[in-house]
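User: My notes are a mess, but here's the protein and NAP's SMILES. Can you give me a structure?
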Amino acid sequence: MSAGEAQPPAVTPAEHDAMARAVRLAATALGHTSPNPVVGCVLLARDGSPVGEGYHRGAGQPHAEVEALRAAGARARGATAVVTLEPCAHQGRTGPCAEALLHAGVARVVYAVDDPTPQAGGGAARLRAAGVQVVGGVLREEAERGNELWLTAARHGRPCVTWKFAGTLDGRTAAADGTSRWITGSAARADGHVLRATHDAVLVGSGTLRSDDPHLGLRHGVTGRPPLRVVLDRTGGIRREARVLDDAAPTVVVVAEGARLPLLPHGHEVLALPCDAQGIDVAELMAELYRRGLRSVLLEGGAKLAAAFARRGLLDRTVAYLAPMFLGAGGRAVLDDFGAMSLAQGLRFRFGEMHQLGDDMRLVLRTAPQPAAEAR
Ligand SMILES: NC(=O)c1ccc[n+]([C@@H]2O[C@H](COP(=O)([O-])OP(=O)(O)OC[C@H]3O[C@@H](n4cnc5c(N)ncnc54)[C@H](OP(=O)(O)O)[C@@H]3O)[C@@H](O)[C@H]2O)c1
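Assistant: No problem, the inputs look usable. Here's the predicted complex:
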């Protein structure tokens, strides 16, 4: 805020509580809204009592503000809209929320996070210009966290990449003989399926495909929309009987341009992409998935593929399940060589949430926030 500009009106306890509720509402749709964000909205009457609420359920469905306005009906006039993301100002598949709020006669808007996209941003300015009181940044951190996959994708113009691994305390992901099942216990493995359900795609390299024959679907009682399964298999050697080619979800097998194209069962796809000595161009793969509307990918192995993403600076978050065991130098490292020759070239993260799951530890690591918002 520049000098001389009026201070924003203080946020009331009711608005603060409503924002916490809106963040929880938004989280209900995590994993279902791509290419859109998760958004929650609560409408408060002048006395602070809630008169309507809603959340965005998925692309093509009403935005959170519109759901809340519908629930409130005539009670929206003069109300305060509390919303986790700056109301959009653009005409997409549904109309601009800033206009819907104005049309309903909302007097005040309290939001958490600025919309970083050039096409949807600007809603706050539009509302202010029309005489609505607008306060941004309320519970920003909580709302950012709830929407971090989409916000990271919007800022970088590619899907947010979460690298997930199960390892020992000495950073080994498999024993010398290649066995890796199971390093962690059932609680950690079940949590890995919850993680899958919140991502648009799950990726593995052909090394993991050959050694583990993973299914990459949702199990352990986790329901929801199964993620797109993506396998990087330069030479197209995947077997038709591979579990990842069952009909639980579509699978994309990524091969090098010019490679022989494997014949896949119906419902699955071969995608040919440029390749160099180090493998398939993972930045090009991210660009292609983004073009298809995917906003988050879960990288599930193995060490070589993770190193390819590290080399290109494409790891945004890490979820590590650490077992209280050691395998020693004979075990396989969780991360292959990605070119770090000095401490300065190491891959540094900041610790996020940490908690114990059964006998294991679950750690979330994040890269430092990017300074400038890049347009998508
Ligand atoms: N504990 C865990 O969380 C966990 C998770 C997953 C895997 N694992 C273990 O990890 C081991 C497999 O890992 P891995 O490192 O050998 O194999 P990987 O990373 O799964 O796959 C590497 C292979 O993928 C293909 N590829 C295509 N493009 C690539 C690119 N840009 N960068 C890297 N690879 C690319 C290459 O094979 P082509 O040339 O044939 O295409 C490459 O050899 C297994 O023992 C498995 O059990 C453990």
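The CA atoms of residues 166 and 321 lie 5 Å apart.
User: Great, I'll file this with my notes.
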